[in-house]
Amino acid sequence: METAAQSIIKTALVEDMRDIREGLATLINFTDGFSCTGSYRSMEEAIPRIRHQTPDVLLSDIGLPGMNGIDGIRILKDLYPQMTVLMLTVYDDDDRIFDAICAGASGYLLKRTPPAKLLENIREAVSGGAPMSPEVAMRVIKLFREVRPPERVDYDLTPHETRLLKLLVEGHNYTTAAEELKVSYNTIKFHMRHIYEKLQVHSKSEAVAKALQNRIV
Fold first, then answer.
1. Which domains are seen in the chain, by residue range?
2. Dihedral class, residue 88 (left if φ above 0, else alpha if ψ from -120 to 50, else beta)
3. Rounded to whole angstroms, how far apart are CA atoms 2 and 210?
4. Residue 75: pLDDT above 90?
5. How far is Cα of residue 37 from the mean position of the Cα atoms in its chain?
6. What is the pLDDT of residues 130-156, one digit of tens each?
7. 98-135: buried (b, 16+ CB within 10 Å) or exposed (e) per residue?
8. DSSP letter at 123?
9. Which residue pairs from 208-216 have beta carbons closer than 8 angstroms and sit at least 24 positions apart in sequence?
10. What Rg, from alpha-carbon coordinates, does the chain have?
């Protein structure tokens, strides 16, 4: 059975602006179920000190004096992989959002997030969620659509050409592919010329690589 002490969410802060840092610490400490275990003005201060009482959740700004928040959480996530990190920042540009998530952030919140919503977001993150401010979520969806590779690219290959390409992917050469398909070596060469043209490649290895990359076979 879970005790009251076990249910408290230990939260730490990295924020260089004193008013914001103290306001967040007060909000966390005076809310049932939360405890502020550390409040730091820079990553240089946080990294060596956070080990004394590792939090469940770290709220970190990005624009910090010295090391920025994204570089800092890369180090902290290496040291404490179980620690949940939420960015709390004024920045909502694609590059910082993408870099923060790649660095290990579980969520990305803007500083204008209302206090009650912020606490809700912390609970969500501890439960395995990935809270994001609505504006950030929309940018992430847009970014995902732009960078996501296509499900399948159609290079207008015939069924026979696709089957031949699949054999090459499986490790066949022209001779063994000809035996498998019961055609002549010259027929394989003829079809391969068309495959190269359609895929815009110049060798068997390039054709295999493109087939795998674009999920042609």
1. 4-147 (3.40.50.2300), 159-213 (1.10.10.10)
2. beta
3. 53
4. yes
5. 27
6. 899 998 988 887 777 766 555 556 688
7. bbbbebbbbbbbbeebeeeebbebbeebeeeebbbbee
8. H
9. 208/165, 208/168, 208/169, 211/165, 211/166, 211/168, 211/169, 212/169, 213/149, 214/149, 214/150, 214/152, 214/153, 214/155, 215/151, 215/152, 215/153, 216/152, 216/153, 216/155, 216/157, 216/162, 216/165
10. 26
Q: Give how far Cα 68 sits from Cα of 15, 73, 78, 105, 203, Å.
A: 11, 9, 16, 14, 46
Q: Across all residues in the chain, what is the average pLDDT?
A: 89
**Which backbone phi and psi does 19 adopt, to 5 degrees?**
-60, -45
pLDDT for 54 beyond 70: yes
* Sequence letter at residue 89: T
Locate tokens 């920045």: which residue?
91
Residue 157, SS3?
A: coil
Measured from the Cβ of residue 66, the count of other Cβ atoms closer than 10 Å reads 12
- Pairing of the two strands 34-40 and 57-60: unpaired
Helices and strands (DSSP H and E) totals, the chain: 11, 5
